[in-house]
Amino acid sequence: MNNARGRAILMSSALASLPRPHVIRRSQSATAGAAPRSVRVVVLGVGGVGKTAMAVRFITKRFIGDYDPTLETIYRHTTVVDDELVNFEIMDTAGQEENSLMLEDKCKWGESFVFVYDVTDKYSFDELTRLKFIASYTHSRLRVNFTPCWILVGNKSDLAENERMVSTEEGRQLAKDLGCHMFREISVRESVHESGEVFEDLWREFSRLSPRSPSSSQRRKFSYRIQDKIPVLNSNASTCASEALKNLGVNEGISTLTHTLKKQCSAPGFTFSTRTSKESLYNDSNNNNHSDDMYDNARDIARIPEADDEDSDPATPPPDYGKPMRSRRNAVVSGSLTTKPPTFPRARRKALCKAVSVDNVFNHLDENSTTASDTTTPLSSSSTSSSTTSLNGSINPSTNSSDKLKTNDSMRVRSSSDAGQNQSDPKKAVSRNPEDLVSIYQDHCRRHRARRCESVKFKRPFNPMPAVPLTSTYEVGGF
Ligand SMILES: Nc1nc2c(ncn2[C@@H]2O[C@H](COP(=O)(O)OP(=O)(O)OP(=O)(O)O)[C@@H](O)[C@H]2O)c(=O)[nH]1
């Protein structure tokens, strides 16, 4: 009996001397089962200073070597800072955006701000005074229960030795003059950790300044306008999207997709964020080209007849693809490729809202080829990741699209009275061959990119996709 007691005492003292297990301490709300605390960060700076590179480095630890001007993107990334789970929402703004009203909207959305300049570019340094003024002024007019954190970052310090135009001292002085809480000089290219440290320091300072998170009603108030327009990427979205496209045998678009991660998927109908409403965009005088593109692409793919569409037959009711989606607001990106188009007026929404798999396209082809009618039957031909199994292994990823069907006309199915004509006209015939669908899809990618590049708003140089499948210069992944 005494022996047993002695052993128990020995064991408990041995256990007590063991190191305590590392416990991730969460904020009170997190332990209570609620979401981790979060902060919304807006990264501002002129084009090419490395905003996207910095955000992607923080999230993926990888460096983007190429430059592709950003459209807007919001990244969601959850990580542990000082034993606390933090959810970062990082808005990577377009450095070439010149619309200051849009900028005000973004500033209202943000809770903390990172101002980035390039140490080899004096202009990017000087511009920050204006950007900081807009951000400060916008925030001073809001009634919010938090204090934003401001950080000034000088990037590309690896080039400083030969090309520096802004000294470290000047950077520090500007941070002081602008009332920034911190100043950092970093090289996103050379250092894996410096980018992360910027965001981690920002979180520390923000949680010191504002121990309580901004209320959700406050957040919602500023979210709707912005998040309806800007795609949201969860930090594993790019991998899923690339995989889905690869499984479909579509190489084209993958490099854009992974390259940007950031930037919107160039494939028409494939949108990362589906919270875009055509009506709301149209009502907003600041926005036009982007919404037009999204609308046109979705319409092109689904072939929804328009009143002013030459080929459309107004008497033909839109096809019923099932129950329309109720609320786009709930359709936040969940990290996978989605083909849900933007919200349209009810009649079009009915036709557009259901993502149609490649299998369904084949079914439609079967149905329509047996229907005797003189009308053009609209078809939807976008593909979801769920459809990939049917094509797995059956598509050669290195298919050259140049000798495949090219025009959008091939997306239509004519009635049986046209069938003979279609057979003689390869452009109008619809092949059951999945490779043809891939080439049609690739063609859409190309046209979409061209249209977007022509957009005056974003001032993007025209850079058509080569017909040869691209190999990415780097890989984004590891989320
Ligand atoms: N040498 C060097 N190049 C960098 C560094 N950070 C980014 N770059 C390069 O700078 C270029 C622009 O980077 P981005 O991250 O696309 O710039 P951005 O500020 O997002 O530009 P916009 O999208 O136009 O707003 C890319 O070619 C990057 O590879 C760095 O620390 N050192």
Automatic annotation (TrEMBL):
Gene3D superfamilies: P-loop containing nucleotide triphosphate hydrolases. It comes from the Eukaryota. The keyword Mitochondrion does not apply. Residues 403-412 have a biased composition (Basic and acidic residues). Keywords: Hydrolase, Nucleotide-binding. Its EC number is 3.6.5.2. InterPro entries: P-loop_NTPase, Ras-related_GTPase, Small_GTPase. SMART domains: RAB, RAS, RHO. It catalyses: GTP + H2O = GDP + phosphate + H(+). Residues 391-402, 413-424 have a biased composition (Polar residues). One of its GO terms (molecular function) is G protein activity. The keyword S-adenosyl-L-methionine does not apply. Residues 369-390 have a biased composition (Low complexity). Transmembrane segments: none annotated. It is an enzyme of class 3 (hydrolase). It holds the Pfam family Ras. Residues 305-345, 367-436 are annotated as: Disordered. PANTHER family: RAS-LIKE FAMILY MEMBER 11 (PTHR45704). Belongs to the small GTPase superfamily. Ras family. This is small monomeric GTPase. The gene is Rasl11a.
